[in-house]
Amino acid sequence: MDFGLSEDQREIQRTARELLSERARPERVREHAEARRFDEALWRELCELGWPGIAIDERYGGQGLGRVELSILCEELGRALAPVPLLASALASTMIEHGGSEEQRERLLPGLASGEALGTVGVARDGVAELVVAAPVAQLFVLIEDGSARVLGAEQTQVEPVDSIDSTRPAGRVRAPAGAGEALEGDVTGGVDRALVAIASELVGVCDRALEMTVAYVKERKQFGVPVGSYQAVSHRCAQMLLDTEKARCSAAFAAWAADADPERLGEAAAMAKAAASDAGVEVTASAIQAHGGIGFTWEADVHWLYKRAHIDAALFGGAKAQRARLAKLLAS
Amino acid sequence: MDLTFNERETAFRQELRGWLAANPPDPEPEQGGEDAHYAWRRDWQRRLYEAGWAAPHWPAEYGGRDATLTESAIYFEEMGRARVPLPANILGLLLGGPTLMVWGSGAQKERYLAPILSAEEIWCQGFSEPDAGSDLASLKTRAVRDGDEWVVTGQKVWTSGAQYSKWCMLVARTDPDVPKHKGLTYFLMDMEQDAVQVRPLRQITGEAEFNELFIEQARIPEENVVGGVGNGWKVALTTLMNERAGLGFALQVRMRQLLDDTIAIAARRGLLDDPLYADALADLHMRCEQVRLLAWKGLTDVERYGQPGPEGSLVKWLWSETNQRLTQLAAEIVGPEALSAGTSWSYELLRARGNTIEGGTTEVLKNIVAERVLGLPRLKAA
Q: Which residue among A3, A246, A328 places its CB closest to the CB of B278?
């Protein structure tokens, strides 16, 4: 049994972290968040590196690596709060790769793998999906409703830009008339499960960053003549942030591994990963704001971006309670 | 990443599982109280010993199986899974023996290891004192040299199995004039002397799992010093580090079984269709899985990379809180039986309150995480 990453996987992690710490510095993230637009230059660079296609099979123009590798990238993107549509597009390609027919995969995946086409996924009710990340810039839409999924082009949907609380990524309301688009008739559940794992991994990165910023801050910030981090009320909060993060991390790692190596356990593992990461994402980033004190409540401090990203990711494909409800059904069966 | 067991580990598990199925312990005695219960566990250890299963984690030269950390964890998982009792001399097997293997002299290993394994001589642990709990190094029990003996006076608490023990791993202060961590020495004290009085400590479950030790001028020969005079803190740390390894795997399997039993009862009563119960049970299911994953991650990281991650301190914290939540929810689901004295449900409910205290309180664990894992400034203490 080995929870460690392989040498190649560590290399992907190292490269991603270095690149993003350079290209997605906090001031650059802020600049794009305040302007509410993607970082086009960074997105092009990531496309050239093949990131959007990392987990897509080589037959369809991807790199043919596994869900563990995609999770590594998602975690790093979350840590950096990178203002790029990679997660959304990876969710779309995941749905098509697992839920689509061979013909759909051959036709749709190469564009998503290269980044030429930008995809996203929405969970719809009565043909309307709310707060769909990257919707205003996407060309390909996967809409999931009542357990079935369909794929639509931009011309088959109406997209209305919506300002979400997370301005590092544009969002929109997507409407599609009943019957429009093509049905995905493959393993839609397997696609959704893998999508849950990718989102959970991004949340783990968000938690990790929130904890890192908080620990650095409470070591520096002095009140009553000592660093506030020496007070147990503060340090125990930080310890709790670590526990929540590690609970989410081990759950997401298990689910990513199961997706590739033990698909029978994927359903349970994915629900667990998304539930743990959604709760941790919101709790850990909220704690980060609290531990930063007054400064944490200001627009100037960067912790609020993490809290906002965490809320949007936590809600994607159903939050912690929805996932636990699904888990409970699995336990009952 | 590979979350499967290799062939050797799987074979180890299968062999043990097969042995346990073919050689179950006698039924738990219903009469005779704690003495009968203890005798039952002692007999069980003898059977394990005869089959070579008393301490697979011990080196083969001392009667073990050279089991790896992973195999040792599998051992405890399987013991938990088979719902068999732990060997009577668990403290000797897990703590005393391994401590002697690191710090003991050749003569000490020769003398003490074999009777630990066979349950011929039971060991107990004399560390905590009424005024030295989390702050162990402040302990006051004194040992004064008298010729080639040491004379010990003081009081110890939380010594489980003391009434059945031959040897006590005793940490005492041999030099009061140096900083508190430096003046300690680790002894093996013979419990069979009048100067050592054992008084059972009745706990909130009503039983007496632990004892108080009153030591009034007990005598310990010089050759029973372990690891050298003044080196007691380091030797004690070796003992404490072994405390959390292994056993935790049996405890988490036990927790898993309790959860499965609770889910089964909830299902029979139709409570799984109630979203509040369903949510709470799903949450506990996740926590149990996370304890399992974090425990395995911590252990295999040490095994493969020689480096423990942050998991070590987190697992015990998460397990103890989860077991408390679980037993409380179980009390709600099971109903009156769980609140009636003498049932296993009420026992688990009450016993779980000790989980966040024993072997490092949750508060101390949080300090350890904050200081050693996160590198936060150390709390200033007197």
A: A328
